TrEMBL record:
Belongs to the Rab GDI family. This is Rab GDP dissociation inhibitor. GO terms for cellular component: Golgi apparatus; membrane. It is found in: Cytoplasm; Golgi apparatus, trans-Golgi network; Membrane. InterPro entries: FAD/NAD-bd_sf, GDP_dissociation_inhibitor, RabGDI. Its main location: cytoplasm. SUPFAM superfamilies: FAD/NAD(P)-binding domain. GO terms for biological process: protein transport; small GTPase-mediated signal transduction; vesicle-mediated transport. The keyword Membrane applies. It comes from Crotophaga sulcirostris. It comes from the Eukaryota.
Length: 446
């Protein structure tokens, strides 16, 4: 048996890392106890399986169409058009296995209603979210952010990106609380208000990422793959296979074999697959992770687009925590038959938030109120885990559980963090491209 450098027990982070490791010339073995790729990030099809998974009695009504027309994500997320995951897809060329559609709009909740998020000057001037003078100030702020370049102090206008807090930057432009809410939560995509008292550089870069992503396609900065997110882990799995990775689905994991405090293999069905490093999700190593919170997600099947979204067939809605007296935001993302994930004329809206009380269903109610009438609900509450073992000694690298956000940026931060712990160096796209050329030569790139 050839020892494998890396064994992966799969969720999306593991699939992406194994693809990247394979491209970088490492020998990868994938094992998964499920019969499908991607663990928690899978898409469930047919619809009957979703009913079973949530222990709902009976079968879906005929009005829901054919079961096999459905691909329902358990954990819905959109991709930022200019974000890290799209860069990973382009770098690894996984894009050749996937087709994406742009999400039609991004909305924000204010005083019980939803409004389109203004992110260009023209939209800011037309938006009913703000009064006239507020619009001018917000427009000046957007122009400032667009021109801001962390390498050119001439663009700072008296702001020190590493010292000035974001709260002070908002003050400088005299922006009111509602504008601060949607800028921080719907543009910079923070989940809480902790960022206000941190240096502003990160926030300005996040708003720039949003605007640049938006500029690519115009309707919103988000993309979503046809046939659901389950396509992503499959794409990376195909990539790894091209570069010689080995796959084993339906493999129960009996034991992670440790010698002298270090991982040496994974035992399945009596046999040990040897490895030098192991990447896995928290469900495989309960003794090396700690619970850091909970997320509630409600999958809703609708027969209508969401009200006040111009009948969009896909959208994201962010409910900033201040608007509903909470500490964390509530997210809604909606997709439909236009993405080959639902039967004709049907919509899937998924609401999620970080649990803060003993009554999570009440916490998510503001989101569900926006979706009425709801044909069928599937409610799940999941524990969030983070690794207590960083893998330096054990060489076991554990991913974090998916959070409540509806985009992949936090997941990509986790991937880069694991990469750094495994390889001892930063995750650098340019450096990787050079390495890939060294290993496989230019010809294979074409």
């Amino acid at each position: 048996r050839v020892p494998h450098v890396v064994s992966c027990l799969l969720s999306l982070q593991e699939c992406i890392l194994s693809g990247i490791m394979s491209v970088n010339g490492k020998k990868v073995l994938h094992m998964d106890r499920n019969s499908y790729y991607g663990g928690e990030s899978a898409s469930i099809t047919p619809l009957e399986d979703l009913y079973k998974r949530f222990n709902l009695p009976g079968t879906p009504p005929e009005s829901m169409g054919r079961g096999r027309d459905w691909n329902v994500d358990l954990i819905p997320k959109f991709l930022m058009a200019n974000g890290q995951l799209v860069k990973m897809l382009l770098y690894t060329e996984v894009t050749r296995y996937l087709d994406f559609k742009v999400i039609e709009g991004s909305f924000v909740y204010k005083g019980g209603k939803i409004y389109k998020v203004p992110s260009t000057e023209a939209e800011a001037l037309a938006s009913s979210l703000m009064g006239l003078f507020e619009k001018r100030r917000f427009r000046k702020f957007l122009v400032y952010v667009a021109n801001f370049d962390e390498n050119d102090p001439k663009t700072f206008e008296g702001v020190d990106p590493k010292k000035t807090t974001m709260r002070d930057v908002y003050k400088k432009f005299d922006l009111g609380q509602d504008v601060i809410d949607f800028t921080g939560h719907a543009l910079a995509l923070y989940r809480t208000d902790d960022y206000l008292d941190q240096p502003c550089q990160e926030t300005i870069n996040r708003i720039k990422l949003y605007s640049e992503s938006l500029a690519r396609y115009g309707k919103s900065p988000y993309l979503y793959p046809l046939y659901g997110l389950g396509e992503l882990p499959q794409g990376f799995a195909r990539l790894s296979a091209i570069y010689g990775g080995t796959y084993m689905l339906n493999k129960p994991i009996e034991e992670i074999v440790i010698e002298n405090g270090k991982v040496v293999g994974v035992k399945s069905e009596g046999e040990v697959a040897r490895c030098k490093q192991l990447i896995c999700d928290p469900s495989y190593v309960s003794d090396r992770v700690t619970k850091v919170g909970q997320v509630i997600r409600v999958i809703c099947i609708l027969s209508h687009p969401i009200k006040n979204t111009n009948d969009a067939n896909s959208c994201q809605i962010i409910i900033p925590q201040n608007q509903v007296n909470r500490k964390s935001d509530i997210y809604v993302c909606m997709i439909s038959s236009a993405h080959n994930v639902a039967a004709q004329g049907k919509y899937i809206a998924i609401a999620s938030t970080t649990v803060e009380t003993a009554d999570p269903e009440k916490e998510i109610k503001p989101a569900l109120d926006l979706l009425e009438p709801i044909e069928q609900k599937f409610v799940s509450i999941s524990d969030l885990f983070a690794p207590t073992d960083l893998g330096t000694e054990s060489q076991i690298f554990i991913s974090r559980t998916y959070d409540a956000t509806t985009h992949f940026e936090t997941t990509c931060d986790d991937i880069k963090d694991i990469y750094k712990r495994m390889m001892g160096s930063e995750f650098d796209f340019e450096e990787m491209k050079r390495k890939k050329n060294d290993i496989y030569g230019e010809e294979e790139q074409q």
